[in-house]
Write a structure and sequence with these properties.
By secondary structure, the chain is mainly beta. The protein has one helix spanning about 5-15; strands spanning about 5, 40-45, 50-55, 70-80.
Length: about 80
């Protein structure tokens, strides 16, 4: 599905489409144990359409280099009601 870019809607709903903290311009990529973040993508509602969500995370080592050996990927499929 094509996504919709609309910053005004995201702001109104308190959503973010980036891992960068809104209004800071800084990337909060150093999370402590138990911390999390989420971001969203806006798309047109199409009833009874199949959709597949894919997510992947590549954590960084203490020196900032990516730890590709610890990469995590997940996928889920659903039907939009």
């Amino acid at each position: 599905m094509d996504s919709i870019t609309d910053s005004a809607i995201e702001e109104k709903l308190g959503l973010s489409s980036s891992a960068i903290a809104p209004g800071t311009g800084e990337a909060p990529f150093a999370w402590g144990p138990g911390e999390q973040f989420a971001f969203g993508t806006n798309f047109k509602h199409q009833a009874n359409s199949p959709i597949t969500f894919k997510a992947r995370l590549t954590p960084a080592l203490p020196d900032g280099k990516l730890n590709h050996d610890a990469k995590v990927e997940a996928e889920g499929a659903a039907t939009i009601k």
